[in-house]
Amino acid sequence: MTLAADSHEMTSAPLICIYEISKILTSSRSLDASLHDVLNLLSSYLEMRRGTVVLAAEGGDAPRVVAVSGLSMEAVGRGELRYPLEAARQVIDQALPMVVPDIAQDPMFEGSDLALGVLDEEEAMAFLAVPLKAAEKTLGCLSVARTRRPGGRYRFGSDLQFLSMVGNLISQALHLHQRIAEDRKALMAETARREKTLKARASRPVDAVPAPEEIIGQSPAMVEVMGQVAEVAGTATTVLIRGESGTGKELIARAIHNQSPRVGRPFIRVNCAALPETLLESELFGHEKGAFTGATQERKGRFEQAHGGTLFLDEIGEITPAFQAKLLRVLQEREFERVGGNKTLKVDVRLVCATNRNLEEAVAEGSFRADLYYRINVIPIFMPALRDRGGDIRLIARALLERFNVENGESLAFGEDALSTLERCYFPGNVRELENCVHRVATLAKGETIGAEDLACTSGACLSSMLWPRLPEGPADLLPQPTCPSPCQSAAHPPSHPPSHPTPHPTPHSGAPMAPPAMPRQPKQVGPTTPAADPAVESGAALDPDSREGLIAAMERAGWVQAKAARLLGLTPRQIGYALRKHNIEIKRL
What we know:
Layout (H helix, E strand, L loop, with lengths): L11 H14 L5 H16 L2 E7 L8 E5 L4 H5 L7 H10 L3 E3 L24 E10 L2 E11 L8 H45 L19 H13 L6 E4 L6 H10 L8 E5 L5 H9 E2 L11 E2 L1 H4 L4 E5 L6 H13 L1 E3 L6 E3 L3 E6 L3 H7 L4 H7 L2 E4 L9 H17 L4 E2 L1 H8 L6 H15 L4 E2 L12 H5 L67 H5 L8 H10 L4 H8 L3 H10 L8
Parallel strand pairs: 6-13, 6-14, 7-10, 10-13, 15-16
Antiparallel strand pairs: 1-2, 1-5, 3-4, 4-5, 8-9, 11-12
Helix pairs in contact: 1-2, 1-5, 10-12, 13-15, 18-19, 19-20
């Protein structure tokens, strides 16, 4: 039926309701939960009862209810909602609003439960519905039931006007979620197709894939990575490089660029974690002159600079949700506007991203947009940790030392015992930590050959090993393994249960847990502020690591520093941490 809309000034309640609905629909919650909250708002602010969102079905099937106020979808599935689907079908098919002043007088509503809210016999329940349209397509309808005020003329026009505004907001949200679902389906299909192509090409031996000079490694894990790089380099598909910090993700991104048809074009790098959101937007998209304070001239962004080449976005998991929405549009359309400008620019850019975060957990927590995740996670490449690259540590250490020699005019070399010791280290910082270790030992080396005794870990000075015992306490089996073989445990053979007695000294090549070496002690001077040391306590003979009293005495002597107490007792930091938890000894903070 056709009704003339009555023009009248909107009250504050509808305006507040529209504002709250827009906030709900733009949140990161699921669509079903958002629609349910919108209908509850309609009931609270405007006393519109039994609000319902119905979506059109494909192939001529009956429309389906996706959200309803006052009932859960589980209750709808059990048949507890008696809703006039025929009325919804008419609204969807004709794409016109519908008003039924009294549903008790219309046979289409016979048997529905919309009249349950009528408490006064003189009142009548009216039904109002508006179509949900987006992109010239009717997606469904929004309907509400309202009691008519007794006496007077009821203004249906104002209610339809308000419902149409709410329906427009819901339509845009539905359209966006449908596009996300379609993009996800297309991306998954593309990923499956490329994985099938990679498997079909697996007959070619990956050993034949040449590795770039800057990437050193012959382990099976790295050979597999270089095989993936060779396969994806020739396409324009977005690549996501994943792995721990310091594994060389940027080198892999550059290798992809250098083996691609874009090799002669720019390779632009951006560390997304190094800039705040406002500066990151200007850095990526550029800005016009006068766009903000300090913008004294026009500046091209990194997307423009990388036109025709490759843009590498490092630490992409650290960008804020607000900037994720801005970046998503650029990745979808490959077009953007500079900050402060209104001219749309299009670019041809190959995108390579990298992160050390668990993006799946971030998506589940709501801190990373699912649509952006599916957009960048087309071809994932997983970088192995250095401890999982058997045999590569020796090669990388020698290459790093050779580079140090060239830069500093030295002729140092590693001894076999030093390389064996490095191979048993855990290296939580991966190649970056190994590089620091090589530079440190090369700088402080006393002779031309670097031996195991020159390494920091063999003298108890490995800084990484000091960090691990200070992690939050937990079960011993769940604690991360220490860094170096001495005074830490070997990563290759970590003990399942730390022993309660000192570990015997193994040979340097055994790979078994190594106890700290005997540390030379200087005699302490006896003065007015330094008491004379007890020789029995200094030697460790009077300190029993199996007893609570012995552990407390050692911790007191070491100033409650676990690493020092471990050296007194002949234990590793991990072992003494386990012993302290076993005897329930509270750590004092001095």
